[in-house]
Amino acid sequence: MTVAIPIQAIELTPGSQIVIHNLSWQDFELLLEDLGEKRNTRIAYYQGTLEIMSPLALHERPHRIIAYIITTILEIQGRIWEDFGSTTFKRPDIAGVEPDTCFYIQNANQVKGCTQMDLSIYPPPDLAVESDVTSKTTLNAYVSLGVPEVWIYSNHKLTIYILQADGYVESSLSPTFPNLPVTELIPRLVQQAINDGTSQMLRELRALLQE
What we know:
Layout: E1 17-20, H1 25-35, E2 42-46, E3 49-53, H2 57-76, E4 82-83, E5 89-91, E6 95-97, E7 101-104, E8 127-131, H3 136-145, E9 149-154, E10 157-164, E11 167-171, H4 182-196, H5 198-209
Parallel strand pairs: 8-9
Antiparallel strand pairs: 1-3, 2-3, 2-6, 4-7, 5-6, 7-8, 9-10, 10-11
Helix pairs in contact: 2-4, 2-5, 4-5
């Protein structure tokens, strides 16, 4: 006998995840509705496989700090950007994912006025940031969405993934910030923010960039 359990009844402990296989796109859409907007989980769907992740509180802070670092650098460089946070991005019937945070930079002008994300109208984000997420489902979803650059921060290390014709490849350089050693800079600044406070770290970063 099959027993149906409402998705809201499933409680994930922080740092845990569940994987559901053979889930249709229609079921995925219904599940998103059941989960609602106000939740502390992240989802990734790719060709029938769904991952629901509940991040640890200590893993939430790094990606917020990284977002502050990114916007500070962009501001100093005089560039425009749009921060779309953990917006749900979907490629119907294939993939869906919610970044920890994401940015439109090269395509910032193209998402002006956007209040509901639709990838048939708008381009994918230029840069997505994930904290402690290394699942194949998540990266496959990003490939399907066409996100050109993904940063994954894990174990005090930043890994940059650049989209190529056959998927993501690791890179030591960021196309978004080609003149900055971000794989060295980001981990150091995240730890500095944790030790000394985010505002102090950002003030020092601004001073460094403006020299």
